User: Fold this.
Amino acid sequence: MTRVAVVTGGARRLGRHLCEVLAARGYEVVIIYRASAGEARALVQAIIDVGGTARALQADIARAAQVQRAFDDVAAREGRVDLLLNNVGNYNPQDVTKLDPAVWDATLAANLSGAYYCCYHAIRLMPDGGQIISIGMAGLEGIRANRRGADYYVSKTGLLVLTRALAAGYATRHIRVNMVSPGQLENSIDLPPPDEIGAEVPLGRAGTLTDISQAVTYLLDATYVTGVNIDVAGGYRL
Assistant:
């Protein structure tokens, strides 16, 4: 039976790469996008062109009703979810002293509440042995004060707590729930210059999309791993 993967924020950047990797591994990929309709359509065609199966669904995952509608569609079309990949990660690098409550609400809604809405509906369609993988943020285990992007850090810390709670709660069904946390990636919006990145990243380079997909691929096959967060960050925030 074909396995079905639902990827949020799957039309662009890391999400696009992960969709391509999953399709190459034989998953039927459902790409959930909010506003990137053209890029989502192009990705679907690119996957189909190399022999894969994919389709795109529009939904703002910060809105519970839209998430329910999207998963109702998956239930009707695919009938199951074997893998949910929570990739959405809105990042607003504002100083906490200037952080508007509306921005705070939007970040928490997309990054944390939205991930929960997707987990809630996906698990109802998930056979025993299914998986949830969320994309987090490096350094969650020893989080420290950071004035820029506090809303993002709070949302991803909450996502780690949710990951562990779901891993424990659904272990009897052998549903594994894990997190992969990038650090500074080559396409990060606040990436230091190449001659300065070594001051932040001990391995001396930015991460690649392939670095992240290697960790995701590991978790797909790691049948005795659940409730963990894997930093893929070259030592960033050690």
Remarks:
- The mean pLDDT is 94.
